[in-house]
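Pipeline run #58 for the internal structure catalog. This entry was flagged by the ingest filter as a single-chain record with no existing model, so it goes straight to prediction. Upstream metadata was stripped on purpose; only the residue string is passed forward. Reviewer on rotation: M.T. Logging verbosity set to normal.
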Amino acid sequence: MRLADPRLPRQPLRIALAQRLFETWIHADDLRTAIGDPPAPPDARELGLIVAFGARVLPAAVRLLGVDRTHHSARLVLTGPAGGDWTLPLRPGDPARPPDVTVTMDAVEFCYLLGNRRDPVTVPHAVEGDAALGSTVLRAIATVGCDFRLETG
């Protein structure tokens, strides 16, 4: 199964199901917001599946931005429930190497950014290392949701 963008490679079924979990949660959260209810982050188990999905597709999302980051790696550090630490080559097939940038943020905020429900500039985060690459990583995370940002009001 392909993710939303047909330029992405085919993914295993378990990844497609994690994507569906992510979409179901983010759109249910949109509905809660639209009717005036507070947002409801996924539980820790579901959050872990969504976070793992996002980390897995991040290198492909960077590539789809059209930014050549050959031989660059990024470290993604997510805090809170279902947080973790990933060092990812930003070009599929590149070997793992020490990261050029570290992006740190809360796991739930990562998921909202993944769904394009947060702005990559203003979402609470920290960047250590190559600031331009950090900006690219944050923009790439926001492209994974492949849909619109809900406007309310």
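catalog note: The CA atoms of residues 11 and 113 lie 21 Å apart.
catalog note: The beta strands are 73-79, 84-89, 101-106, 126-129.
status: ready for reviewer M.T.
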